[in-house]
Amino acid sequence: MSEAGTADPTRRNRIHEVWDRRILAERTLADDQVAALADLAGRVRALTDAVVHTRVPADEIAAVSAEVAALTDRLSAVRGEAPPIGSHDGTGRALASPVSGPLNPIAPPVDIEPLPGGGARAAFTLGGVYEGPPTFVHGGVSAMILDQLLGVAAAANGTPGMTATLDLRYRRPTPYGVRLTAEARVARVEGRKTWVDASIAAPDGRTTVEATAMFVMPAR
Ligand SMILES: CCCCCCCC(=O)SCCNC(=O)CCNC(=O)[C@H](O)C(C)(C)COP(=O)(O)OP(=O)(O)OC[C@H]1O[C@@H](n2cnc3c(N)ncnc32)[C@H](O)[C@@H]1OP(=O)(O)O
């Protein structure tokens, strides 16, 4: 029998503890690595923005492409098993979250502030990288941001969970290139279930997207 499959629950828990510590250690970066990676992620975001907006000729694009491939090889010389975990500011904000993670180049990043008593708010500006319909934000991007905001609000309520349902109502197109605001508030809690409402507003204060999510604290 493999160690992980042992029938002795005490021994199994010990094995999981050692395993968890090993994963935690492997995925925890030194402070100087976090700072350097945050800087790199910002530059890669700028690169991504340049890629979708560039109009340079094809031979120049090919030359840049070769340089980027060489840079990817350099970074891949020492590779972790999974993205880093941890929080750089003590708020529990995930370092590599695709929504708010400062180390994740695909994150805008959205700065989400948990509010005491079960809420969260965010202010952010999205670029053309996130375009869906011409000149407006892709609906899936709005959904991703709202899912995270709603989840942070549930956690701020002391009732974190996994998203079980996410209902979206797209009231009007969400513009990009302007400052957007978003807020979430816990509506109710029943046992392991938490319902949270949220919305995104354009600079004129009008709501563009509304969302309601139900989070379930997993049984295990
Ligand atoms: C701070 C960090 C913020 C992070 C925000 C980002 C959040 C995410 O993106 S999470 C990723 C997306 N979500 C997922 O992958 C979830 C996948 N699903 C699961 O893991 C499980 O199905 C989970 C955890 C939702 C429920 O599992 P489990 O604990 O076994 O629930 P289970 O015992 O079957 O059901 C509990 C109750 O919830 C209800 N329920 C469970 N799932 C659903 C669902 N999808 N829809 C409606 N009701 C549901 C059940 O009917 C049951 O209700 P009742 O108690 O009234 O009979």
Automatic annotation (TrEMBL):
Q: Which SUPFAM superfamilies match?
A: Thioesterase/thiol ester dehydrase-isomerase
Signal peptide annotation: none
Q: Which UniProt keywords apply?
A: Apoptosis, Cell membrane, Cell projection, Cytoplasm, Fatty acid metabolism, Hydrolase, Lipid metabolism, Membrane, Transit peptide
Q: Taxonomically, which superkingdom?
A: Bacteria
Q: What is its EC number?
A: 3.1.2.2
Give the subcellular location. Answer: Cell projection, Ruffle membrane; Cytoplasm; Membrane
Q: Name one GO molecular function term.
A: hydrolase activity
Organism for this UniProt entry: Actinomadura namibiensis
Family membership: Belongs to the THEM4/THEM5 thioesterase family.
**Thioesterase domain sequence ranges:** 136-207
Q: Which CDD domains match?
A: PaaI_thioesterase
> What reaction(s) does this enzyme catalyze?
octanoyl-CoA + H2O = octanoate + CoA + H(+); (5Z,8Z,11Z,14Z)-eicosatetraenoyl-CoA + H2O = (5Z,8Z,11Z,14Z)-eicosatetraenoate + CoA + H(+); dodecanoyl-CoA + H2O = dodecanoate + CoA + H(+); (9Z)-octadecenoyl-CoA + H2O = (9Z)-octadecenoate + CoA + H(+)
Q: Which InterPro entries match?
A: HotDog_dom_sf (IPR029069), THEM4/THEM5_acyl-CoA_thioest (IPR052365), Thioestr_dom (IPR006683)
One family name in Pfam for this protein: 4HBT
Any one GO BP annotation for this protein = fatty acid metabolic process
Task: Report the main location listed first in the record.
Answer: membrane
One annotated Gene Ontology cellular component of this protein: cytoplasm
| Name the UniProt record assigns to this protein | Acyl-coenzyme A thioesterase THEM4
> What is the membrane topology noted in the UniProt record heading this document?
Peripheral membrane protein
